[in-house]
Write a structure and sequence with these properties.
The chain is built from 3 helices and 7 strands. The longest helix has 14 residues, at 68-81. The chain has a single domain (2-132), classed as Alpha-Beta Plaits. The strands form 2 sheets. Strands 1, 2, 3, 4 and 5 form a 5-stranded antiparallel beta sheet that branches. Strands 6-7 form a two-stranded antiparallel ribbon. The protein is an alpha+beta fold.
Length: 133
């Protein structure tokens, strides 16, 4: 099993419920267990669409047997299940799930960068992540 850290954000609808539902779905994945969850922090959106709502953000620590690309696929399926629609980059979203760290690996693929490419630039990622490290 690998330890991985995920970032979670929402700025549409009941943000707290969206994040909790995502955590429950992640925990229900075969071969995956949520070990720890951060508190929620509210932040202004960074980049993207002007006048979108504030984000609620969190981070979780998980054990998983899924390799990184399969984990990413499972997370994208959860986003879709919870109603995420792909649209404008950095635009409003009901849920956003990102792999921040995965078992100390460095991965640079077209659809996956670990550590997450912009995590060190974003307090809304680092602050909750530090709570679960």
């Amino acid at each position: 099993m690998a330890i991985s850290y995920l970032g979670i954000g929402s700025n549409i609808g009941n943000r707290r419920r969206n994040i909790k539902a995502a955590i429950e779905k992640i925990n229900s994945l075969r071969n995956t267990k949520v070990l720890k969850a951060s508190s929620f922090i509210e932040t202004d959106p960074v980049g993207g669409v002007i006048n979108q709502g504030k984000f609620l953000n969190a981070a979780i620590k998980i054990y998983t047997r899924f390799p990184p690309l399969i984990l990413l696929k499972r997370l994208k399926n959860i986003e879709k299940c919870l109603g995420r629609k792909r649209g404008v980059r950095f635009g409003p979203r009901i849920i956003d799930l990102d792999i921040l760290l995965y078992a100390g690996k460095i991965i640079n693929k077209r659809n996956l960068s670990i550590p997450h490419a912009r995590m060190f630039e974003r307090e809304f990622v680092i602050k909750p992540l530090l709570q679960v490290l």
